[in-house]
Amino acid sequence: MKHYVSDIAFTPSVKAVQERLGSRKGYASMEQRGGWNDVVTPELATFIGERDTMFIATTNAEGQPYIQHRGGPPGFVEVVDEKTLRVPDYVGNSMFNTLGNLTVNPRAGLVFLDFERNRTLQLTGRAEILWNQADTAGRTGGTQRFWTLRIDRWRESETHAGLRWEFLDYSPHNPKLKSTTDDHSARSDEEKHFICPLCEGVEDNEPGDCPQCGTPLCGDHVGR
């Protein structure tokens, strides 16, 4: 029996339902044309490099799903090679649902949206958390954490329903990338300003815990 790249999505049970409800023939034709891919092409690298937002789906050990938005400056998701993406893990609300799920089940799915062209990119693969990484360019906003996705399958398609959107501005909490050096001690006044990601109005000039809720304070230049 021939196997297709799309088999990760179209399992035998899925194909059985497609057959029952009349869509199997069309999807079988797509499989034969190679509608799914498993390596990053130059066109895909360009697509990802232009995006400033995406969603990641993970599951915990019991199979309960969790979906989270991740955003940053355009190109915040890096293409490392033809099989690997690298994503900075910014400071947020310190719940760590996504990271916690990935420690017990590395399987993950990503969705990127191109709002202007009504295109959707879906990827599946296995993620790995990279702790305590050198980050001289400041891509992580100070956490020194990244995670990578080793791509199993991807597919780009038209978003048929269309997307309604209005671009206002990029988040002021996106990390400001450093242009040079390895000097972690040289920090601007802005970088020394810390806020609570949960309690409005709580701020300090030094790192520590929020006096109201106990959440670790984070630099106000990092993404939420």
Polypeptide structure, described:
The C terminus is likely disordered. The chain has 2 domains: 35 residues, no CATH class; 122 residues, Electron Transport, Fmn-binding Protein, Chain A (Pnp Oxidase, Chain A, Roll), CATH 2.30.110. By secondary structure, it is α+β, with helices and mostly antiparallel strands. 20% of the residues are buried. The strands form 2 sheets. It has a 7-stranded antiparallel β-sheet, with helices on one face. The protein contains 4 helices and 10 strands; from the N terminus they run αααββββαββββββ. The longest helix is centred in the first third of the chain and has 10 residues. It is elongated and about 60 Å long.
Which fold name fills CATH's third level, the topology of the largest domain?
Pnp Oxidase, Chain A
Helix-strand pattern, N to C? Answer: HHHEEEEHEEEEEE
Strand content: 25-35%
Largest sheet: 7 strands, antiparallel
The number of distinct helices, counting runs of at least 4 residues, comes to 4
Q: Would you spell out the secondary-structure blueprint of this structure?
A:
Elements: H1 12-21, H2 24-33, H3 42-49, E1 53-59, E2 65-71, E3 78-81, E4 84-88, H4 97-104, E5 107-114, E6 119-130, E7 146-158, E8 194-195, E9 203-204, E10 218-219
Produce a short descriptive summary:
Helices cover 16% and strands 28% of the residues. It is α+β, with helices and mostly antiparallel strands and 224 residues long. It folds into two domains: 35 residues, no CATH class; 122 residues, Roll (Pnp Oxidase, Chain A).
